[in-house]
Amino acid sequence: MxxxxxxxxxxxxxxxxxxxxxxxTSTSSNAPSIGPDLHEIQLRYKLAPPTFKTLxxxxxxxxxxxxxxxxxxxxxxxxxxxxxxxxxxFREINxxxxxxYPISENISxxxxxxxxxxxxxxxxxxxxxxxSAKARKDLLQERGRIYILLDCVLRCLVDIFGQxxxxxxxxVALDVLRSIKAGIWEGSENELxxxxxxxxxxxxxxxxxxxxxxxxxxxxxxxxxxxxxSRNPPFGHKMLRQLANFPVLRLQFDIVDQYSPVQTSxxxxxxxxxLDGPLWIARVMLGYENEEVPSWNKKAPGATxxxxxxxxxxxxxxxxxxxxxxxxxxxxxxLDVRKGEELKVAFACEEIVGTIIRxxxxx
Length: 363
Fold this sequence. Notes:
By secondary structure, the protein is of the alpha+beta class. The chain has 3 domains: 28-182, CATH 1.10.3380.10; 196-243, no CATH class; 249-362, Immunoglobulin-like (Sandwich), CATH 2.60.40. The chain has helices at residues 36-45, 49-56, 64-72, 87-96, 110-122, 133-163, 167-182, 200-208, 214-218, 222-229, 235-243, and strands spanning 249-259, 263-266, 269-272, 279-288, 302-308, 314-321, 329-335, 342-349, 357-362. The strands form 3 sheets. It has a 4-stranded antiparallel beta sheet with strand order 6-5-8-9, covered by helices on one side. It has a 3-stranded antiparallel beta sheet with strand order 1-4-7, with no helix packed on it. A two-stranded antiparallel sheet has the order 2-3. Residues 1-34 are annotated as: Disordered.
């Protein structure tokens, strides 16, 4: 990777800045032109040109709502129209459930379907009963394809934000992707529902006992788990064996030195390497606390490291499998930041909620 950091697409060119528009977007008539690096991203994810242009209109530093909203507006979602039998169901979700981002317009567009379905799923509550058995079955069949498409669109968005060096955008897109893959919003009170065998009633007992996340549950003895949940042995042992695979990440970040480009003499003139100024050299140690390589949902998860500077600009981005962290992974990177600039460092698994480590440092 380049000394000054890497974007999600490992591209060094910066995308054109979008023109001002409504919050979270730029006007479509002034959408940024798609240069070679962006075109490469489009080809990688095989998305329709209108979809890609829509994604490129998102302004820097978006919030969750904007990212999810724009992702669901992908042209490909038009193959999932809201059927007449579904209208009451989606209106009920929008008007009478606790989803965080209701829609103010009439519920009729294909993107409404994906936008509302994701939110009701992430609430981890029952689907409203205002739907026939046949319509429910059809919707369940469509649901899997909707999530596959959404995964592709969000990963594409991470690369777009990375290419334009929007660190806040990368972090938020990863947050939404992680939440959707886990089936729970990052930071919600439902983190424990990721554990196989833990439902709403079981989670309620644990929360009332002060156990609100998986890391806290991991610290309990097997007999405490059995007592809290009124279960007999070997229930506690089985749960702890399962939880032993939950990734408990480790992050160490230190700024160790400053590097200034060396002056070299060429043809009797003094010339400096093509750098904007001094680099801060950082040492990053990535790893996990687990005794063996973590495996969740029967696979070793991916992990991401994002370093943001002030204003949300992307300083560094790394992505890899936790398998690569077995003996600890050391990264020595050059950070193009000014003295005293605040850096936000976030390290998390890609598809699991509750693994994120956040640190703040100053150059």
